[in-house]
Write a structure and sequence with these properties.
homodimer, 266 residues, alpha/beta, Rossmann fold, 5-stranded mixed β-barrel, 8 helices, 23% strand, 5'-methylthioadenosine/S-adenosylhomocysteine nucleosidase 2 (chains A, B)
């Protein structure tokens, strides 16, 4: 955390975490899985691509960074798979970039933004942007006591009552799995998770953020209706560009709201 | 890589990777997801637990290390989940420890050892230890061209023809997913992957090892027959201790074989 100028730098060592948490948020880490979702925000916040990566040279992860309204913004996109050339989507890449970014960049707050499938039975429509209340996995079934809970991996998002009040975002629970489609078992787990939106990264970001006790919030924009008529992949590709625009607008409003506030004012 | 004593240390900078790969393997990273599987090997190789962790203080990952037959051995167990107290199994923890261990320890070779489900239709029996030829995922279904291949994430294990000849281990393909049970969709993907054994970590270790071009081999011991009569969880728990002993014996034989050899002699 960069200290505001009026506080002498020697005070840093004396401040406990409670005091630190009353300082305005200074560094945000935005994690976005797909380039299509990320690039409009890179432009909006006028971020620059890293010339000398903070990550090992072997990984495809891309960092964009800059300052926007007194916030130091790092936007990380896991990049293209080096062999196949597609976005490195899913929980493994998401957990790795979250881990490495926390180590390298020490953010005050993580924002995981991305597109998602939505359930119309739970009130989701195409283009809705959800502020996530909690995340869990729906494809880690381990039917052994306690391991079953580990598999579900329920994590609360950072509570943001004021953000919720100020912005008119819908609120819902997120369920994460590594498949774009949904099997009958996935569906049963998603229902058990009481989820309104379904993505491929959120709970993985939440897992790593929780280990390091970094507050994390999740913005998920609905590209396809999972319990609707159209096949997910087709609907997802059809709506990706336009829904990404809605997502980016929501992220901008959230970042504008965050600027100047401390973590407990969100 | 630690250089053998007869080579002057100044030669290191001049050696290309081809020359380096002709030197005996000096550092092995063993990744094991469960404590029950790990502890007998810690004793066998007389490894010590890290006093000052090479990992961030927040993670539960445990490193055991020591020297055995001129090999520097690091055995990493992802530890107990801090909230739930169970082993941190599955692909996310496996990928994180593989990443962080490669960064901190620069191993010449990774051995991922663990228990697995086996398919009797493909020749697996309880207690068999398989040397894995290739790894893929069975629970990352992304039905979009090229993304589908990314989801499957097929990676070759390091080729070890001499190790195979010397030790009488069965050879088979491994399929990885985050569930202990198997849904109909999982089964279809496992059949498509032509897998004989099914685990919860292998392909994740392979993914990260491949990014950093660290050779990796996989030893998987069969605790339960997936296409058999008994429920997986019950059979797994019943056989975990005895099959772990068979696994540990196999890992010891593999490490004994590796000692003194270069990576291309395996």
């Amino acid at each position: 955390m960069v200290l505001p100028k009026e506080i002498p730098s020697s005070a840093e060592n004396d401040m406990d975490s409670q005091t630190l948490s009353k300082l305005p948020i200074s560094s945000i880490l935005i994690i976005i899985a797909m380039q299509t979702e990320a690039l409009p925000l890179v432009e909006k916040f006028q971020l620059s691509e890293d010339q000398k990566s903070v990550f090992p040279k072997e990984v495809p992860w891309v960092r964009y960074h800059g300052t926007y309204r007194n916030l130091q913004i790092n936007l990380i996109w896991p990049g293209k798979d080096s062999a196949l050339g597609v976005d490195s989507v899913g929980t493994i890449s998401a957990s790795l970039v979250t881990y490495a970014s926390i180590q390298a960049l020490h953010p005050d707050l993580i924002i995981n933004a991305g597109t998602a499938g939505g359930f119309k039975a739970k009130g989701a429509s195409i283009g809705d942007v959800f502020l996530v209340s909690e995340c869990a996995f729906h494809d880690r079934r381990i039917p052994i006591p306690v391991f079953d809970l580990y598999g579900v991996g329920l994590k609360q998002a950072w509570k943001t009552p004021n953000l919720h009040k100020e912005l008119d975002l819908k609120v819902g629970k997120l369920s994460t799995g590594d498949s774009l489609d949904m099997s009958a078992q996935d569906e049963a787990s998603i229902v058990a998770n009481d989820a309104t939106v379904k993505d491929m990264e959120g709970a993985a970001v939440a897992y790593v953020a929780d280990i390091f006790k970094v507050p994390a919030i999740f913005l998920k924009a609905v590209t396809d209706i999972v319990d609707g008529e159209k096949p997910t992949a087709e609907e997802f590709l059809q709506n990706l560009a336009t829904v990404s625009a809605a997502l980016d607008q929501a992220v901008t409003r959230v970042v504008d709201f965050i600027s100047g506030k401390c973590i407990h004012e969100l």
